[in-house]
Structure formats: C-alpha cells, structure tokens
Specification:
This protein is mainly beta. The protein has one domain: Rieske [2Fe-2S] iron-sulphur domain (Rieske Iron-sulfur Protein). The chain is about 0% helix and about 40% strand. The protein has no helices and 10 strands. A 4-stranded antiparallel beta sheet has the order 2-3-4-8, with no helix packed on it. It has a 3-stranded antiparallel beta sheet with strand order 1-10-9, with no helix packed on it.
C-alpha cells in the first residue's frame, strides 16, 4: 500500500468532509456519524462539483448543486442526475493521521 497522509483525524468533523489533493487527485475525506472515515473522489461525475462542499448523511455524500448522492463505501450514485460512480480509496488510521492510498482505488469509474 502506498498510503500517504491526507489529514489528521481531528481535522474532519463528524458528518462532514474535507477536501485534500494527493498526487494531483482531489479527494474528499469524510467522517460518518459513527466515526468511520472514508476517502472518496471529490468531483461529482455529473457536474464537476466538489463533493466535499456537499452534505454528509449516514453513509452518503450529496452534491450540493444537483442533489446526486453517492455511497461512501462504493462510490456508486444512488440517484440521478449522476449515473457514473466516483472512486473510493483505501483509508488507514495511523495514530492521529488519516492515510489514503490514491494509487490503488477500491473502485474505479467505469
């Protein structure tokens, strides 16, 4: 795994997202209400909108511009207008650091 530090665990509020750039890839680091942290591609596949500026609820993130929701675990869109998934990246917590491996996405846009 080629994980690199994306941010600190405490840098991400519960039910919120933080945008980071790793190796030229925009990534939204998201913390669910149960404390689980996810790394998902930050760009909505419908409208080139930053997902980290959207809304986090349960295990989804919603694009603020057009309302498409994406599953945090799979990157799949759950409603229109988006129909293409966003990538999901492996996350490791190392002490107070969130490490993300953008070189080996768990899912790819198809």
């Amino acid at each position: 795994m080629t994980a690199q530090r994306a941010c600190g665990v405490d840098d991400v509020a519960v039910s919120a997202a933080v945008k980071v750039e790793l190796d030229g890839i925009a990534v939204a680091i998201v913390k669910q209400s149960d404390g689980t942290i996810h790394a998902i591609g930050d760009t909505c596949t419908h409208g080139e909108i930053s997902l980290s500026e959207g809304f986090v609820e349960d295990d989804t993130i919603e694009c603020w511009a057009h309302g498409s929701q994406f599953a945090l675990r799979t990157g799949k869109p759950l409603n229109l207008p988006a129909y293409e998934p966003v990538p999901v990246f492996p996350v490791t917590i190392d002490g107070d650091d969130v490490l993300v491996d953008v070189a080996n996405p768990l899912t790819q846009n198809s």
